[in-house]
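re: the backbone from monday

yeah here it is again, tokenized this time
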């Protein structure tokens, strides 16, 4: 397949090398020609603009820093939209704005071409090894037609839904990770200042109930099925635990911003009369505030957890 690749930085350069190594003809473009040197030496061809790249390819990929760069490369002067062939496909691998993805998708559709947002997750090591998740949204038939090409990039391509949904999934994933990072920094700082060796603390807590589970599996027991009864651990007991942790933080002079916010949420849930329900019931407050309902069938969750409900 004739593939165009625009954006050859930390992620894009590694992904492009995998696509080229899979045997596809490739034309590349980057703001810095020097970034393309390893690919040119391996047989890729250079294009001066994004439009020229698109004009020489059946499928175009971009891997760019953010929405401003994506918009400029896709729709700006000399952009992909000016050169892409009728019927050709554009996959944006960048972490970008869902609303921008939808706008680009609509503009390309008017021209008889296809744009799918397809952000990736796995970091530079995953880009190099091919252990990448790709969350793709847009036209499902186009996704299915190109899935084998996406498998040259990563081992976990997945169709998420209409245009913009892939970008939403990426933002959920990344934002959750960084919130958890700050929360871990907060509680580990408290623990170490309270006198426990950092390595000993980490080695101990990672064998606890939370440490032994994958992060996103934590929402399958109660939050996604919206089932908080009977409790696995009652809210009133969890409220006591977090109260003790924040008190220890105050005693040690450690700021506990996220923990105190969590305690406020749990206190609100407690004041609703939910003390005997599962401790995760405080999570139900946020969908209520947003005016939505979240309820996933428990059998579907069990099937997915067992690995038999996964879709490419």
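seq for it, each position gets an aa:
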């Amino acid at each position: 397949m004739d593939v165009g690749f625009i954006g050859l930085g930390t992620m894009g350069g590694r992904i492009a090398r995998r696509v080229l190594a899979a045997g596809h003809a490739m034309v590349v473009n980057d703001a810095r020609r020097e970034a393309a040197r390893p690919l040119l030496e391996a047989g890729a061809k250079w294009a001066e603009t994004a439009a020229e790249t698109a004009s020489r390819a059946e499928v175009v990929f971009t891997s760019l820093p953010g929405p401003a760069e994506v918009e400029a490369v896709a729709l700006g002067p000399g952009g992909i939209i000016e050169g892409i062939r009728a019927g050709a496909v554009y996959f944006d691998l960048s972490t970008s704005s869902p609303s921008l993805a939808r706008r680009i998708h609509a503009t390309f559709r008017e021209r008889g071409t296809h744009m799918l947002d397809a952000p990736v997750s796995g970091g530079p090591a995953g880009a190099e090894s091919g252990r990448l998740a790709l969350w793709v949204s847009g036209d499902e038939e186009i996704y299915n037609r190109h899935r084998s090409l996406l498998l040259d990039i990563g081992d976990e391509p997945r169709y998420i839904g209409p245009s913009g949904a892939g970008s939403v999934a990426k933002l959920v994933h990344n934002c959750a990770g960084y919130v958890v990072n700050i929360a871990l920094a907060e509680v580990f700082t408290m623990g170490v200042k309270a006198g426990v060796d950092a390595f000993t603390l980490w080695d101990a807590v990672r064998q606890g109930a939370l440490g032994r589970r994958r992060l996103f599996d934590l929402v399958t027991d109660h939050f996604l099925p919206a089932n908080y009864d009977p409790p696995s651990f009652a809210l009133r007991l969890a409220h006591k635990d977090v109260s003790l942790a924040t008190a220890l933080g105050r005693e040690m002079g450690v700021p506990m911003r996220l923990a105190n916010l969590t305690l406020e949420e749990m206190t609100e849930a407690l004041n609703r009369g939910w003390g005997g329900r599962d401790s995760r019931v405080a999570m139900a407050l946020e969908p209520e505030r947003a005016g939505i309902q979240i309820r996933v069938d428990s059998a579907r969750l069990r099937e997915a957890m067992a690995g038999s409900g996964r879709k490419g």
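The two ends are 21 Å apart (CA to CA). The chain has a mean pLDDT of 96.
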